[in-house]
Amino acid sequence: MPEYPTTSRAAACAAACTLLAWPAAGWSQTSFPDKPIRIIVGFPPGGATDILARDIAQRFATKWGQPTVVDNRPGANGNIGAEQVARSKPDGHTLLVAPANIAISATLFRKLGYDATRDLAPVSMLATGPYLIVVPNALPVRTLRELVALARARPDQLTMASSGTGSPGHLAGERLQAAVGIRMTHVPYKGQTPALTDLIGGQVSVFFASAPVAAPFLASKRLKALAVTTAARIPILPDVPTVAESGFPGFSVGAWHGAFAPGGTAAEIIAKLNEELGTFLRSTEVKKNYAQQGLELVPSTPEEFGRFVRAEIAVYEKVIRNLRLDQE
Hints:
Layout: H1 9-16, E1 37-41, H2 48-64, E2 68-72, H3 79-86, E3 94-99, H4 101-108, E4 120-136, H5 144-153, E5 159-162, H6 168-180, E6 185-188, H7 192-200, E7 206-210, H8 211-219, E8 223-228, E9 254-262, H9 267-281, H10 284-291, E10 296-297, H11 302-323
Parallel strand pairs: 1-2, 1-3, 5-6, 5-7
Antiparallel strand pairs: 3-9, 4-7, 4-8, 4-9, 4-10
Helix pairs in contact: 1-11, 4-11
């Protein structure tokens, strides 16, 4: 299995030694699924998480013959959707597809209506990928080095859009600013699509976008990509350098997406969901399709994903404390 982003090998190995505290099975249903399935996404339509969720919904509906819908519940850094799932009946018919916001919110927000490690049961990792540092065509820069120089010359004048305060892209941007010594003004949006719309229009200067969402705008040359945030370039944009290649070594941040059920969901239901997700994610055709969008599909066992989420919570806690962002 490929190494997941953000968490170092050392952190991942340490996390692997910690057993995931699974909630006691509170609902068992051998005939699962026997009614429509709802997949909740805590963000507006059009983002990478939403794209994944809709493909999974189609797969479930085809496989099991039950209507499967994606229910977008945007707001509060994805916490509105996550809380909805956490409070749902643990029968496997309500699921959450979420990015790293789940791990971030555990530290960023002082009061949450759910506990990510208690009220959500990990089902599987779904995908990993980079962020693309994209800018409007009108911004007079062609490289990340030029963007950094411009930001240094104009502290706080450039604006950095995000899909919400505390979103993984927001933290990636904050981490880059801290690493290279620049200051940009943060402008949060309720999702990637509205942020990209304003970026194209020149209302904001920079955005850390997920590859599947940004790729069409790059292909149509409505935006410019300056760098990818992971350690290696991605096949769909071979000419876009990494941050390290752009003159800022040691910087590497990636995105991830995973599936959760309500805490207390029976182990046999979790296993059935995990098996079907694994079959879907390992399909050669599906993997090729997502690779063309800049995402790598990485199915896991529930236990592996649970350990990973716990490790990510620890990693992001340090990031948030170091950046002094834990004031929300």
